[in-house]
């Protein structure tokens, strides 16, 4: 149970780099979803920034759900979160590098806790962003430079979103 901070969920792939499948923030549940708790993990949860989380073994969690008649609400929550993983796969195939980057930056900024010192800051290095979007580091660097020239991102070594509105426009409407 993530109570503060942001994480990325990375799916394990046999001989290929892990694939970013989701971003999560405060209030989200993260962990392994499996019928066989002794099996191999299919994903890893990696902190983007400082996080606080609570741990509850699934049998205890299941008892709490039953005691408060919340099984259906939990199922709805899980379906909702699982359906959010689809856009990451779609964007890799159908969106331009600018759209992919804009969408990722928007989601990371949106997940920042209200008390975060600088919620517009994106605490990921370009290499991690490139890997997450299946782009080369040079492509990501070029895209970031262009966004800085347009005033969408702040200048300097750290990634910081200045114009969310323009970033949202680029996330939707940018030709291949």
Automatic annotation (TrEMBL):
A GO biological-process term: regulation of DNA-templated transcription
Superkingdom of origin organism: Bacteria
Keywords from the named record: DNA-binding, Transcription, Transcription regulation
GO MF: DNA binding
Keyword Transcription regulation annotated: yes
Domain HTH crp-type: 95-165
Keyword Electron transport: no
Domain Cyclic nucleotide-binding, first and last residues per copy: 1-65
InterPro entries to which the protein is assigned, alphabetical: cNMP-bd_dom (IPR000595), cNMP-bd_dom_sf (IPR018490), HTH_CRP (IPR012318), RmlC-like_jellyroll (IPR014710), WH_DNA-bd_sf (IPR036390)
Protein name as it appears in the record: cAMP-binding protein
């Amino acid at each position: 149970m993530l109570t503060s901070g942001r994480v990325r969920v990375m799916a394990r792939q046999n001989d290929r780099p892990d694939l970013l499948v989701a971003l999560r923030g405060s209030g989200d549940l993260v962990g392994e979803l499996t019928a066989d708790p002794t099996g191999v993990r299919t994903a890893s949860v990696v902190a983007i920034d400082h996080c606080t989380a609570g741990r509850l073994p699934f049998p205890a969690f299941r008892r709490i759900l039953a005691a408060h008649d919340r099984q259906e609400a939990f199922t709805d929550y899980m379906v909702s979160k699982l359906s959010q993983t689809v856009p990451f796969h779609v964007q890799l195939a159908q969106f331009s590098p600018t759209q992919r980057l804009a969408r990722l930056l928007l989601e990371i900024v949106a997940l920042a806790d209200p008390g975060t010192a600088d919620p517009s800051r994106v605490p990921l290095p370009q290499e991690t962003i490139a890997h997450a979007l299946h782009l080369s580091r040079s492509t990501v660097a070029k895209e970031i430079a262009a966004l800085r020239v347009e005033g969408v991102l702040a200048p300097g070594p750290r990634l910081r979103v200045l114009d969310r509105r323009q970033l949202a426009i680029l996330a939707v409407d940018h030709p291949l």
